[in-house]
Amino acid sequence: MKIGELSKTTGCSIQTIRYYEKEGLLSTPERTEGNYRLYGERALKELEFIKHCRSLDIPLIDVKRLIELKNKPEESCASVNALIEQQLSLVNKRMRELKALKAELQQMVSSCTTENTVEACGIIKSLDS
Amino acid sequence: MKIGELSKTTGCSIQTIRYYEKEGLLSTPERTEGNYRLYGERALKELEFIKHCRSLDIPLIDVKRLIELKNKPEESCASVNALIEQQLSLVNKRMRELKALKAELQQMVSSCTTENTVEACGIIKSLDS
DNA sequence: ACTTGACTCTATAGTCACTATAGACTTTAT
DNA sequence: ATAAAGTCTATAGTGACTATAGAGTCAAGT
């Protein structure tokens, strides 16, 4: 299949697919006579793997490491585990931050009665303090 | 005060301060004879306002709008409110996403017994599916 | 045979909010 | 007088894409 079909099947944009290839995350595809990229089942699976990692917010550099580890099936998976745990702690941290943000934003919204002028606006006041 | 002092007082890096100025978020400072930027109380307040907005993840373009609104105190603050509410809904959306991420990552971590090889690794398996 | 339109190619620039660097200039301390 | 610290501008890099320009390829219809 050509890049357009792979793009539709996976939901990755064409540019993103080419970008992943350039970054060494997808194996180099064959080409047609006219220099079009040609993909098979394998590329599809590689791309789904990357997509799944990205949906977990795993940065591309770590995705790359995971792919390399996948290709060394006899090694210990301790580093895979470490990577995922690190990702988990990042997510936890970000969630705590967002909780605080949410509380403050809610407080701000509740301090605003829309009939106000900017001058009297509780939101601007709280941003100012 | 010079830029280094402003940087220390506010915790913004020197480059960030210059960046905010270039983007039109800070008013243009006076200069010494030797072309050094000179700041006073006003710049300090402007910068604190920006910092506070940024700590709420409000994008710079919206911070700029808020600053403009601040300078029109007689107008209605409805658009201030809309902006903050939009920000709140973004935060909510992101929190829902992170919750789902967290659940999946935890599931993955629990599927890994560190003695495994990569081949048998539950994490890699779940990323593959 | 020719043309149209859809698809693909590479290379490059833009996004956001900074951070980092190079090379020159100014000020402060010894 | 000199060294160190601070500041200046301009430029490039970050991450993970997205968007664009300009050229080439291919299949279908006239």
Element layout with pairings:
The structure is a homodimer of 129-residue chains.
Chain A: H1 3-10, H2 14-22, E1 30-31, E2 37-38, H3 41-55, H4 60-70, H5 78-110, H6 122-128
Antiparallel strand pairs in A: 1-2
The structure holds a DNA duplex (30 and 30 nucleotides).
Pfam families (chains A, B): MerR_1 (PF13411)
Organism (chains A, B): Thalassotalea eurytherma
Domain HTH merR-type (chains A, B): 1-69
Can I get a quick summary?
Chains A, B: Residues 81-115 form a coiled coil. The structure is a homodimer of 129-residue chains. Chain A is mainly α and 129 residues long.
The largest beta-sheet of chain A arranges its strands as: 1-2
Oligomer state equals homodimer
- What's the end-to-end separation of chain A, in Å? 58 Å
Structural class of chain A: mainly alpha
CATH topology of the domain at 3-75 in chain A: Multidrug-efflux Transporter Regulator, Chain: A, Domain 2
Share of helix of chain A, binned: 55-70%
Q: Biggest chain pair contact, residues each? A: A-B, 49 and 49 residues
> What portion of residues of chain A belong to β-strands?
under 5%
SSE series of chain A: HHEEHHHH
Q: Write down the overall geometry of chain A.
A: elongated
Q: Give the low-confidence spans of chain A.
A: none
The number of distinct β-strands of chain A equals 2
Average pLDDT of chain A, rounded to a whole number, is 91
Give the C-level CATH assignment of the domain at 3-75 in chain A.
Mainly Alpha
